[in-house]
Amino acid sequence: MTAILELFFQGQFNLSTLAVFATLGFLSLVGVAIGLYKAAQFARLGVGKRESAEAILDSWLSGRPDDAISAAAERKSVLARVLQSVFSGLQSRPQDPSYAEELGRQSAIIELAQLSERMRTLDMVVQAAPMLGLLGTVIGMIDAFGVLSLAEGAVDPALLAGGIWSALTTTAVGLAIALFTFFIATWFEGRIDRERNLIEAVISAAIHGRVDPSAGLR
């Protein structure tokens, strides 16, 4: 990074390459901003609160529906809100479990839609950053060889190496941004997938019961 800044202050980058760097900087800011937003959103929505869902299910399956409904009504987590919908369906139509299951799935769709917000933007950063970096390299290489083609006499190898080196920096920066954003996106997608599996488990357990209630949602 220090070497890139030195080249910048020495005027080694042309305007096209600087524009690529500016765009890459913007993409990195987008990735970081979305990462912080998703982390705050997951905490606010109550993602991953399996223990509280287990406690609600234990109350429901142990013959204490009032306690379970009261705990689910606090709506402190994704799983609690889904269970509240299921309990509402079971109370409205106790002889029709498919109705409760449908209400639970509708609630799950809404919850998962919120969790998936802006994930495609992270994917866009992952895919666009390396391609943009490569574009900057191509532009830099064209510029370097264009200057050499106008040079008279023997070509200075140091000049050629410096032009190629400065051109390749955009690819390196683009790949670094893509890798960092990829790790962020993968972590969030893993949590969403886990929450989806837990939602299916709690809906099934609330309606049909658990084979081993002491096992919990493992």
Structure description:
With 218 residues, this protein is mostly helical. The protein is built from eight helices and no strands. The longest helix has 52 residues, at 157-208. Mean pLDDT is 85; it is low at 3-11.
**Radius of gyration, CA atoms, in whole angstroms:** 27 Å
Low-confidence stretches: 3-11
Largest sheet: none
Q: What percent of residues are in strands?
A: under 5%
Helix content range of the residues, please?
over 70%
Structural class category: mainly alpha
Briefly, what is this?
The protein has 218 residues and is an all-alpha fold. The chain contains eight helices and no strands.
Task: Present the secondary structure layout.
Blueprint: H1 2-9, H2 15-45, H3 50-61, H4 65-73, H5 78-92, H6 97-115, H7 119-150, H8 157-208
Helix pairs in contact: 2-7, 2-8, 3-4, 3-8, 4-5, 5-6, 5-8, 6-8, 7-8
Brief descriptors of the model:
218 residues, 82% helix, mainly alpha, 8 helices, disordered N terminus
